Amino acid sequence: MSAHLQRALLLMRQDRADEAIREFHAVLAEDSGNATAHACLALLHAERGAWKEGDDHARQAVALTPDSPFAHYALAKVFFHRQRFPEAASAIEEAIRLDPYDADSFSLLAAIRMSTSAWKKALAAADAGLAIDPEHQGCTTARSRSLLQLGDREAAAATIEGALRRNPDDSATHTTQGWAMLHGGDPNRAAEHFREALRLDPTSEYARSGIVEALKARNPIYRWLLGYFLWMEKLPPRMRWGVVVGGFFIARTLARRQPASDAEGWMIGIFLAAYGAFALLTWVGDSVFNLLLFLDPLGRHALDPDQRRGAMLFGIILLVALSLAVAGFAGGSAAMLSAAFAWGLTAMVATTIHACQRGWPRWVTVAAVSVVAMLAAAMTAAAIAGAAIGLAPEEVFEREGARLAAMLFVPAWFGTMILSQVMTRQQVRH
User: Fold this and answer.
1) Residue 79 to residue 257: CA distance in whole angstroms
2) Burial (CB count <10 Å: 0-12, 13-18, 19+), residue 122
3) I want to staple 103 with a disulfide (CB 3.0 to 4.6 A). Which of 136, 283, 319, 410 is the partner?
């Protein structure tokens, strides 16, 4: 092993990526066919988001040493960072075939399975890795997270506590413990673990998102809402849609039902009101509490840039809707109230923009929401113009442009609502 390669590997272990990359390139300057240097460069570039460089080096490593499990591991890691999960799974399974006794490979396989919500397969991969190395940190974390998603909190807690005893300074373990506390409805203790995780690793996005949820969960309403979200995450995708669609059709059936008595009518009315409030809260609750956190001088620092931008956008649109509602009630203008309602619906779909991944899913959602916002703006302009020239409220939307905007708004909003939900589930493959 050359001096450059020895130094490069040492720098890599010390997380000194820039210096390690320079040393690996020095290795390749001496020996362009060094597969180890190519594989290590693939890992370093993948961590930095340099997809093309990482992919090139990983493929060269596999081409040079097709029987090397490390080369296939590096290729799997590159695919994993590019969110190309089927290719990542294929590459890491080849690495495991070549070396079935490497716990790191099983840890990566578990991470790939978790990224596609295949929790049972992730648990199996983590258990296989722990059979090789009972104290492997990555496999332990994957096992805990999988057990949490599968609903076995006791087994998850036992796994996490054992990991914390062995390594109390591991950020990932504290993060997993924090999420376990959130699943258990204890946001205060969860926040303590997330803070410790961020102290140990300030770059941990999973811990940062956890502390945001813990801060919002201090509110009992959001705590209950978070419990619903976490429960829904445990369900298979088809079952989640079944819950949503089933609730909608039950509410629709009850709304059309002719009550047999006044008591039954009251019960149906209360149920529909509660269901409507619940449905609205599940849609905008996250944005509402992000906005409240954004308005807190300390809480806003916990939000990431996307969450801050989303909170500001939601707050601005909501302010427009409330202002129009006040003006409508004060002036007795039904047209102004209609415009306020339109902006309220626009705020609902605008909450999904920053829930989409950066790239084409977000741009598609922005375009759709922009159409809805333009129609709401046209309705607002018509209402203001009508009030200025003294039109009766019922005459405002009889004018050609205003009538067209009002007619198009509901189908545009409904289509955007469906489209945005599809876009939030799309993953950008780099």
Assistant:
1) 53
2) buried
3) 136
- The token duo for 243 is 């819950």
Residues 6+ away with beta carbon under 8 Å from 121: 113
Residue holding tokens 């039902």?
A: 257
Instruction: Give yes or no for residue 274 having a pLDDT over 90.
Output: no
In 130-172, which ranges are E strands?
none
Give the number of residues written for the chain.
Answer: 430
Q: Is there a contact between 189 and 215 (Cβ–Cβ < 8 Å)? A: no
Q: Give domain limits for the chain.
A: 1-100, 304-423
- Token pair of 430, please? 């780099």
- Please give the C-alpha separations between residue 37 and each of 12, 187, 189, in angstroms, as whole numbers: 11, 45, 44
pLDDT in tens, 153-211: 888 888 888 888 888 888 888 988 888 888 888 888 888 999 899 888 888 888 888 88
Region of poorest pLDDT, from 46-55, 98-107, 421-430: 421-430
List CB contacts of 221: < 8 A, sequence separation 6 or more. 281, 285
Enumerate residues 6+ apart whose C-beta is below 8 A from 229: 282
The whole-angstrom separation of Cα 5 and Cα 50 is 22
Among residues 239, 339, 376, 354, the alpha carbon closest in space to that of 294 is found at 354
Q: Give the integer Cα–Cα distance in Å for 144 and 279.
A: 31
> Could you tell me the end-to-end alpha-carbon distance of the chain, in angstroms, rounded to an integer?
34
pLDDT tens by residue, 99-155: 999 999 999 999 999 988 889 999 999 999 999 999 898 899 899 989 988 888 888
Are residues 413 and 349 in contact, defined by beta-carbon separation less than 8 angstroms? Answer: yes
What does pTM read for this prediction?
0.74
- If one counts every other C-beta atom within 10 angstroms of the C-beta of residue 362, the result is 20
CATH architecture type of domain 1-100: Alpha Horseshoe (1.25)
